[in-house]
Amino acid sequence: MADIVLGTGRWSAAGLADEVANRRAAVRHATEVLVRSASGLDEISVRQPSLLPGWSRSHVLTHLARNADACCNLLLWARTGIEHPMYASRDDRDAAIEEGASRSHQLLMEDLIASSDRFAVAAGSMPDSDWTAEVSLSGGDVIPAVHVLRLRLLEVWVHLVDLDHDVDFTDIPTGDAEMVLEDVVQFFGGRPDVPALTLEVDFGDHRRGWDLRGTTSRPAAVSGEPGPMLGWLLGRTGPGELRGDAPELPEWL
């Protein structure tokens, strides 16, 4: 899975501080759930397939560890103004995941926890003014550093579900699910291979809609709850729990 994050925002000083605090708290909670879930695996189950083709659960855990370090690189870039890309290269990223996936469950857990802690420390030490500094993702998209927190949140929740162990999309807190949906929908909205869609999601206390202007002239209308909608958009589940005539979607990433 490539590393992306989308979403826009303009903040006052107080608004930015609130955004950072809320997103750090969300990442901290998601990481706690991740560590708890991954701790429930063992030497046999960690070698079993994940929901990602060709990747075992150990690949997913290693990817999450290396993504935490990649996000640290982006925060270092924002803090110093010196370019620190997420990964040296795509080949280096893939090689690190393959190498790390062969380790024992204990070493996988130690790596996951240590890298997550490094990211938490890096985020906690960022001066307020540096959160608006711009950095570039692996694909070339330029984002403010505050969106690195969104990136990490998306990575943790989506790949936590990919472990196919004891967490699914319906377990994601509503506020986090809405933000992840926003990023996924915005990414899809910029692709020519996505059909036109009108999405409506029921978050319990409010509903929210998105329009995707695809290549078809008449948009399909699809509605449902956050978990099933995320699963379908990300290609992890079918549209069975959604309402409407859900079209076939291309791979998210």
UniProtKB/TrEMBL annotation:
InterPro entries per UniProt: DinB/YfiT-like, Maleyloyr_isom, MDMPI_metal-binding, SCP2_sterol-bd_dom_sf
Keywords noted in UniProt: Isomerase
Mycothiol-dependent maleylpyruvate isomerase metal-binding domain residues: 27-163
Entry's Gene Ontology molecular function annotations: isomerase activity
Name of this protein: Maleylpyruvate isomerase family mycothiol-dependent enzyme
Native species: Saccharopolyspora endophytica
